[in-house]
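Two folds, back to back.
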Amino acid sequence: MLRELHISNLAIIENIDIELSAGLNVFTGQTGAGKSLILGALELLLGLRGGGEDAALLVRPGCREARVSGLFEIAGNDRAERLGRVLDQPLTADEPILITRRVSAAGRSSVSVNGLPATAGMLREAGQMLVDIHGQHDQQFLLRPANQLAILDAFAGAGATRRRFAETLGELRQSQRRLAELRQSEEKRLDSLELYRFQIDEIDSVALRPGEYDEARARYNVLRNASHLQALSAQTLDGLSDGDDTVLERLGALQRCGQELVRMDAGLADFAAQLAQAGELLGDAARALERYQDAVEADPSQLDQVEQRLDVLNKMIHKYARSAEPGSDPVEAVLEFRRQVGIKARQLEADAQALGALDARIAKA
């Protein structure tokens, strides 16, 4: 119920504080004394009268804004909870509610409830729970069936039962909607699940390994060019160390010259050391090339195996990794696709199991 009403700078009212007592309160006075204005202030406070230019006309001439505040007491925890949901803040029946509305001369308005901002829509809905204004063409709280039920339940002390019933009904309707969705899309779900399982089996059957695509391509190039690689290696070794007048032989002669130069001029020691280092590097290179030449061998059967593996990899990449970033490992992209499809398949399988669980949940609710 309304306990206090404070009005300032509204039409002819400069400032007034009204305290109401329990029971019947009557306002009397001559025509024009402002009785209807007090009712209008209450309507403005509760959002039953709009803002904008119409409300701005109520601002007392010469004032920047009008303000109306009301202090309300809530009867019953059930109504307090309902008001709290509407106003988006916790409320209890033992604490009053202070609602304040300001209207500027420019037509702007603001609303606060217990110091927290609220919207005009929230205020209107809350106002219908706090005050019932009976008059021609006015909104009447008791004419709404939902409000009648709420009052009846509150009188019966059935607030807790009402909340449990509402929760159960919400669960029932949610389960029914979910069941309808699953049954409506069951054929599509089964088709998708069949496709996902095929893709999973196809990818798993080739046992992909991250990084193997680049390895296979490199190995294929070596095997395909094995004869040419052997010939080039032999030609290089012939020039380095195996033929006549090789690079290493000529470099050895130069190293000996460098040693003679150092004996005559110690300042050339770095030069001689560089020649010696070059000989060591070329010797290491020649030995490494010899080992490589021995390892390179034309093997048609191995070339065929690598070529077949590359065909498999290219097929998987073309089907499942066409959107892979340039420079990234395409096999990793295929495996990531496999992971995502696995998640989708498990979800669809879970949906199939959920049908039975939903039937049981609906029956229980």
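---
second:
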Amino acid sequence: AGGKIIFFTYSDLITNAEDTLAEATVSPDGHFSCTFDTKETLQVFSHLGVYKTGLFVEPGNDYEVVLPPRKEKSEADRMNPFFEEYSVGLVIRNKTNDDINHLIRMFNDAYVPYYNKYAENLQSMSKPVALDSSISEIMRPFRDTKNAFFKQYCNYKIGLLRHMAYQFRARAASEMYFANRPLLYSNPAYMELFNQVFDKYFVYFSHTPEGSKILIDVNRQKSLTALKHTLGTDSVLRNDALKELVILKNLYDEFYSDHFSRSAILVLLDSIRLTTLFPEHRLIASNIRKQITRLMPGYDPPPFILLNRDSIAVSLDRFKGKYVYIGFCSCFSYSCLREFDMLQKIYNKLNKYVEIVTISVDDNLAQMRNFLSKNNYNWVFLHYGNQPGILKDYDIRGYPTYFLIDKQGKLLLSPAPSPFEGIESRMFEVMREKGDLQ
């Protein structure tokens, strides 16, 4: 009672960015109600403690849903940026036999055992007749089903089964399921197969005579027109919409690889945003750009508002006008502790220009406060507990990890050297370059 429930959908199924659809507050008697608009069947979900729960919704329908018993994340779960919620389907009280959720659940119950049998058994490569027989068995109960979304869902799930069971290689699957077919951006089965079939497509196609210019098109020319022309030599990609979607997926996947220039990828993403005729692609390009630039030098760092040793909320924006050296540390980690004395010396020298901010990942605020009461460190310490997602936002994989932010609030060094790695001399270089020191 009194809790807030937020329902989301995926903004796109390449980045899996989430869009808020509706919010509801649970009444004292345990009920809630919310409404949202959609012109197509959507996958809707909510994060509820340890659970991620959801359903498919169709335009014009009402759904009376029953939530699972509330189970909050433990403190360890809440503090773990890599914790994965348990997936639980919502119970629908007013469902009918032709309800999309009922159909998909029945299909998946039949499909998963066969998927496990064939997709994880390489011997299925030599048994296409047996696979075809299994597919007929899966689809038998649904022969008379008219629901278009469901039929497409089944078709692409079967395509995934054939692909994963090595009956269809990527080339054959792309010709059968994607060439000259409509793009189904919101159908998870379509996008799951799409992401499998066109995984590493740029790299593979660049090794063919027709695709050998891909690296030049991207890295040297930074030309969307040239890239489209090269990809157009693949008969599967004669459709402009599919071609652009393949480009978007591969720009996203290759951003952290050694094959393609990051600056070139950003140029191409901007070209798509400005020139595409497909609104869905403009959105996907924007989502990709937002995700891949969040920790790049020259871009805004992920914002935060965290509690200091006095339980006062401190925002990252508060430090604009000075350089900010952020470190993610544990007050009980030897690697962090051995650098604190060096940080104090740096702070004593440069506090006129540089703000040092240590973000403590200790179990609770009391531990950080107790540590500071015994040590005379006078720079800013913040605790991550009220915003544990900050570890994921900054992609923290070990302690200590540092970042340097410039006076305008943009990432300057990401990640930055540690005190032992010479951050002090690097700071002097930066400040001299910027004219802060003579």
